[in-house]
């Protein structure tokens, strides 16, 4: 029965001891990552059992019973765990297209992992590369930093992945190349690659590690709506760059009619993503151009929408804040109307405070509605959209 599958979950059998805690040595706990999706729990057990006595083995699966690509192996002793790590880390598992180079290491407790995961990494993701950039070119660009174990380019996306042999080599590559090296007038972005398994390992923490990483990298990134279709990347750079080298990168994306084929006839406008060198340049861009018609930028006739770019998590949080504020305003109006009906001489209270601006740059909220006797409360200040400020209180 051990390692057999029942209702999308694997059965794990082990001996029960009176002092069960003593049989689970935390230093003998191993985690295997980047496993082929076709590898089941029994195969994972068989892969590791030749290196020592396994107390328990668990392959992490989703609700459908499909592998998440990582699993845990608890050995009896630290020596056996070390032996398995030495033998299997970096080895290839699977056949054909499913063959993968797995990563095997000691599994640390959450608090220890949080302290060290930012300090030890070898995998990097490089983005903002030309769409036709090749693996050979990427290798040539990063080879000076040390031994490269593997390299991969995502065709047509301008994104690649590099796995160095040592953490120090990866860290040096970030230090020397991130937003400092330019290709075709665009600064490349070099970051630690956070695998999906790391997100699963960090569930329950306050923030998604990928979202946190993006927030730090793009804290000076401005998102602009309603760029004319005829405007080129160079046109946008010239229009929004007050001084040479203010802008590190410009990306344009065409927006099409909803649920329509992406053809020229269905194109509506472009959105721009502008990464500034400093936060003050990004703030000035918002102050100068938000809700203004960009006279001189192609055939512009519509005011721009300019704000700090936000991650999906931040957008969701902003939406939740706005919904909360709407509910509070609605409840306030109900109470106000009830009081007026009960007491015609009821005098309305002061208007509520303006909503607080979102932590990374949302708009200031709308002031709460005052009682009928006093009129409306003040509208929240839009300064909430500028970083480190909030709506009028």
TrEMBL record:
Basic and acidic residues: which segments have biased composition? Answer: 371-384
In its UniProt entry, the species of origin is given as Strombidium rassoulzadegani
- What protein am I looking at? RRM domain-containing protein
Q: Which SUPFAM superfamilies match?
A: RNA-binding domain, RBD
- Which GO cellular component terms, listed alphabetically, does the Swiss-Prot or TrEMBL entry include? ribonucleoprotein complex
Segments carrying the region annotation (Disordered) are 341-393
Q: Which keywords does UniProt give here?
A: Repeat, RNA-binding
The keyword Hydrolase appears for this protein: no
Pfam families named in the record:
RRM_1
One Gene Ontology term of the molecular function aspect = RNA binding
Taxonomic lineage: Eukaryota, Sar, Alveolata, Ciliophora, Intramacronucleata
Q: Please state every residue range assigned to the domain named RRM.
A: 28-109, 122-206
Q: Where is the composition biased (Gly residues)?
A: 348-370
Q: Which SMART domains match?
A: RRM
């Amino acid at each position: 029965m051990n390692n057999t599958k029942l209702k999308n979950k694997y059965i794990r059998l082990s001996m029960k001891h009176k002092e069960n805690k003593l049989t689970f040595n935390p230093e003998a706990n191993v985690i295997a990552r980047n496993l082929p999706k076709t590898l089941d729990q029994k195969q994972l057990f068989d892969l590791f059992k030749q290196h020592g006595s396994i107390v328990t083995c668990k392959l992490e699966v989703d609700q459908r019973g499909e592998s998440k690509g990582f699993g845990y192996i608890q050995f009896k002793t630290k020596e056996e765990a070390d032996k398995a790590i030495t033998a299997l880390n970096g080895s290839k598992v699977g056949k054909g297209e499913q063959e993968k180079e797995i990563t095997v290491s000691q599994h640390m407790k959450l608090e220890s992992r949080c302290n060290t995961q930012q300090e030890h990494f070898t995998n990097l993701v490089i983005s903002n590369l030309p769409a036709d950039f090749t693996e050979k070119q990427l290798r040539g660009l990063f080879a000076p930093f040390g031994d490269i174990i593997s390299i991969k380019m995502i065709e047509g996306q301008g994104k690649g992945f590099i796995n160095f042999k040592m953490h120090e080599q990866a860290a040096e590559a970030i230090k020397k190349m991130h937003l400092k090296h330019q290709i075709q007038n665009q600064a490349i972005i070099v970051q630690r690659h956070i695998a999906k398994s790391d997100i699963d390992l960090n569930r329950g923490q306050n923030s998604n590690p990928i979202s946190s990483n993006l927030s730090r990298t793009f804290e000076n990134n401005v998102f602009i709506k309603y760029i004319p279709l005829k405007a080129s990347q160079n046109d946008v750079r010239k229009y929004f760059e007050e001084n040479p080298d203010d802008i590190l990168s410009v990306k344009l994306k065409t927006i099409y009619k909803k649920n329509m084929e992406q053809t020229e006839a269905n194109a509506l406008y472009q959105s721009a993503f502008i990464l500034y060198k400093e936060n003050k340049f990004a703030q000035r861009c918002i102050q100068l151009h938000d809700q203004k018609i960009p006279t001189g930028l192609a055939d512009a006739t519509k005011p721009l929408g300019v704000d700090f770019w936000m991650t999906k998590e931040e957008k969701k949080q902003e939406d939740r804040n706005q919904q909360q504020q709407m509910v509070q305003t609605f409840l306030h109006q109900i109470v106000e109307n009830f009081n007026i009906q009960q007491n015609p001489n009821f005098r309305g209270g002061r208007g509520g405070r303006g909503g607080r601006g979102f932590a990374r740059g949302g708009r200031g909220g709308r002031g709460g509605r005052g009682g009928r006797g006093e009129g409306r409360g003040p509208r929240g200040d839009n300064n909430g959209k500028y970083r480190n400020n909030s709506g009028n209180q």
